Amino acid sequence: MTTNAQDAIVLLGDSITQDGWSPYGFAQRLANAYVRKLDVINRGMSGYNTDWIIPVFEQCFAKQHDQQHLPKIRLMTIWLGANDAALPPSGQHVPLDRYAANLAHLAHLVSDPSSPYHAPHTKLLLITPPPINTHQWRVTLRQGEPPKELDRKFEVTAEYAERVRTVGRELGVPVVDVWTRVWDAAGHVEERLSEYLYDGLHLNEHGYALVYEEIIKAISENYPELHYEKLQPVFKLWDQINPQNPGPDLQKRDIFAA
Q1: DSSP states of 151-171
Q2: Residue 181 lies in a domain
Q3: Is residue 161 part of a domain?
């Protein structure tokens, strides 16, 4: 980011975050809602778990001594767990306790004043993994080359979602409960999750619509000052510009200034 860029929302996660840039994804929806107000930066890494995302964070997030020279990250979402919940001996598997510790570590990197990455202006949202449709995912795996056996269980992924809720409560970080929202929408019937997952693991248009709604709800309830309707554009709208003397009206402004 350059010094002329807008402040930003950063999305940290795995393939479900990376796919958020799809035409129907939640990242695309956020970028549209916050256009001209906050940039949306996608740092979703397909296949990654919480062990592997920490070094990514440390290379993508500015340290304290650099933050003053860069646009501020106003909101960061942390959305992992779908891969951590893979069953051993999968290389993606991260044991439940270490998964929780990793989530807490990521949050502390931003919120702890002793952290080199401390950013008091950055608000955090933790997001639970969505439920998995093992019936659908088994078919997806068997269609691969080579075919693979089922590497995830519904009840195991549910435990990882619950651990996100626990970490959020312990740290006082709001949690976007995608698991519950999608599970409720499917009527608590695993097979019906195919209405919201295109392959049993990854969200489709309808699933991402629910995610977007839940994120906006969480922002509204926990960080109302960051809701897109509360923010003015960084550069004035065209009908607010004085045609006879446009210069003063075309200066970038700090939309969070008191």
Answers
A1: ---HHHHHHHHHHHHHHHHHH
A2: yes
A3: yes
Residue 114 Rama label (left phi>0; alpha psi -120 to 50; beta): alpha
CATH, residue 51:
3.40.50.1110
**How many angstroms separate the Cα of 32 from the Cα of each of 22, 38, 78, 223?**
13, 10, 20, 19
Q: What are the pLDDT tens digits along the chain (258 aa)?
A: 345 579 999 999 999 999 999 999 999 999 999 999 999 999 999 999 999 999 999 999 988 888 887 899 999 999 999 999 999 999 999 999 999 999 999 999 999 999 999 999 999 999 999 999 999 999 999 998 899 999 999 999 999 999 999 999 999 999 999 999 999 999 999 999 999 999 999 999 999 999 999 999 999 999 999 999 999 999 999 999 999 999 999 999 999 886
| Reported pTM | 0.95
* Measured distance CA(139)–CA(143) in Å, rounded: 6
Domain that holds residue 194: 8-250
160 belongs to a structural domain: yes
Single out the residue of 14, 60, 12, 171 nearest to residue 107, CA to CA. 171
